[in-house]
Amino acid sequence: MNINLDLPPDLEKELCNEASQLNLTLSEYILRVLTVRQVLVNPPKTGAELVAYWQNEGVINSRPDITDSQAYARKLRHDAETRERT
Q1: Which range of residues forms the domain containing residue 27?
Q2: Could you list the pLDDT tens digit for every one of the 86 residues in the chain?
Q3: Residue 43 falls inside a structural domain
Q4: CA distance 4 to 58
Q5: pLDDT of residue 61
Q6: What domain of life does the UniProt record list for this protein's source (predicted)?
């Protein structure tokens, strides 16, 4: 479905800036914003719903390079604890 909108210039500029920060076209970004609004109105209420939402959004398994999440977390913690402070 195609919809034509006359956006106020300020809103168009704001949406374009947000879209470019995510490397999305304006159309892709507006579609994402409209899709996410349901989660804001009806957020996940259980752990299972939250996991299903994260899977649907591609967050879970988004880092195939991390094969052992616990080892990766330990490394991050170690690196943070032993980094040099400036």
Answers
A1: 9-82
A2: 888 889 999 999 999 999 999 999 999 999 989 888 888 888 999 999 999 989 988 888 889 999 999 999 999 999 999 998 77
A3: yes
A4: 29
A5: 85
A6: Bacteria
Q: How far is CA 13 from CA 8, 28, 33, 37, 63, in A?
A: 9, 15, 15, 20, 32
**What's the start-to-end Cα distance of the chain, in Å?**
54
Q: How many residues does the chain have?
A: 86
Residue 78 in any domain: the answer is yes
- Angle (nearest 5°) at CA 9 between 6 and 15: 90
Distances (CA, A) of 49 to 39, 41, 57: 11, 14, 12
34 token code pair:
């409209």
pLDDT of residue 45: 94
- Give this prediction's pTM: 0.53
Chain-centroid distance of CA 24 in Å reads 12
